[in-house]
Amino acid sequence: MSFRRDDSPFPKNGDDSNLVSLFKLHFRPFPKTLNLALFSRQSPPKIPPFTLLIRALSAPAVAAAPATEVSNNKVVKPQWKAAIDFKWIRDNKELVAVNIKNRNSNANLELVLELYDKMLNLQKEVERLRGERNNVANKMKGKLEPSERQKLIEEGKNLKEGLMTLEEDLIKLRDELQLEAQCIPNMTHPAVPIGGEDSSKLRNMVGSPRTFHFSVKDHLQIGKELDLFDFDAAAEVSGSKFYYLKNEAVMLEMGLINWTLTEVMKRGFTPLTTPEIVRSSVVEKCGFQPRGENTQVYSIENSDQCLISTAEIPVGGIHMDSIVAESALPLKYVAFSHCFRTEAGAAGTATRTLDMATGDLGAPAYRKYDVEAWMPGLERYGEISSASNCTDYQSRRLGIRYRPSESPSATSKKGKTNLAATKFVHTLNATACAVPRMLVCLLENFQQEDGSVIIPLPLRPSVGGIERISPKPR
């Protein structure tokens, strides 16, 4: 079961009014993550073999609405266009309709199909008028009587004016179609359970909840007693529910980052640090809502930029509008970044993996696995992670293609070899370590009766050899 804002064990921020700044932004706690991104060929990619793939952001089930509006009954030109296969949608409208329903999306398929048919008909009419205009132009090349030439001039003028009007209408219709179609979510893997969150299926269990023979403390109490957090000073500096990490908590944070990078780099991932401000169009192309009513993204006022809610966004944009050589695939990145978002979560050591149901899938996800961890403070499992196979949903928006390396099938008349047609890559996104959530995990699950916290053996080399965090002498 994933956490909502009302039942998260983490401290929450105050209202926006308590956090007014130049950009009118407010930030959530626990902002650091290491994000994994994988670009592959069109064959469905497999989930990387990591024990924990900690989530950075779970988009709402509703597809991201593009930041383009209809004003005074006029469609404003979209900031960007996705390479959407409208013919496939039309030919598979029953499947698409069921998918939209199962995912609780507000996409309007009927309107998309209606606009697509209108666009095709208008396109045919435009092509017909262009043909007539060309015929008139060809006739005027020969010898003509003055009266006949004048007649053709008038005919050409009328065709030109009519064509200009239809071409303008066609552009507006294409823009409107693009806007509506961008709201359609990705298709869904046939094995994904249908229904709401409660319909998700348990696929794997790792470990079991630790049995405590003493009164369990939550991470806030542990942190206070071990002098690891300072909420009071942070509240004065930044606002309610912010925090400073202190002492061994800082070592743990740095240690988790170094340990995680070391582990994933062994598996061939290229490490990155990313920009933490991106254009809103890139956020949209990745399938998230930068300015919608239920957005989890913080926008910068009076600009087209946003704070990143996950490193998935700048990593997704790194190959935007490019063609990748097939021999370079898969491209594997691990990116460290802060993540500014409204979502909350938790962590633990006993984990289980869920195949998330259709109603809990974000718009880009073809399939999503969530990892839930046992949290002693709440005495239950709670979501900490997700790994999403997005197929070509994001790459069609970001314009990331590859050119197959197989032998081309034809040679041109000039003797030049025709290159194979490009295809869209598939993307797979997950998070290697949501650092502060793992701090919660370590503090709560490795607490001892004497008030100390044991550092797990694998982490000790990354934290300077510290074996235990003990209460400070007073």
Overview of this structure, please?
It is built from eleven helices and 19 strands. With 474 residues, the chain is of the alpha+beta class. It has an eight-stranded mixed beta sheet. Helix 3 (109-139) runs antiparallel to helix 4 (146-181) and helix 7 crosses helix 11 (435-445). The protein is elongated, with a radius of gyration of 28 Å.
Features:
alpha+beta, three-stranded mixed β-sheet, 474 residues, 11 helices
Order of strands, widest sheet: 4-12-13-14-17-1-11-7
Number of helices: 11
Mean pLDDT: 80
Helix content: 25-40%
Characterize the biggest β-sheet. Answer: 8 strands, mixed
Report a brief summary of the structure.
The protein is of the alpha+beta class. Helix content is 30%, strand content 19%.
Fold topology:
Blueprint: E1 32-40, E2 70-71, E3 74-75, H1 86-91, H2 93-102, H3 109-139, H4 146-181, E4 201-206, H5 219-225, E5 229-230, H6 231-237, E6 244-245, H7 248-265, E7 270-273, E8 277-279, H8 280-285, E9 305-307, H9 312-317, E10 322-325, E11 331-338, E12 351-355, E13 367-375, E14 380-389, H10 393-398, E15 400-403, E16 423-424, E17 426-434, H11 435-445, E18 453-454, E19 468-469
Parallel strand pairs: 7-11, 10-15
Antiparallel strand pairs: 1-11, 1-17, 2-3, 4-12, 5-6, 8-9, 12-13, 13-14, 14-17, 15-16, 18-19
Helix pairs in contact: 3-4, 7-11
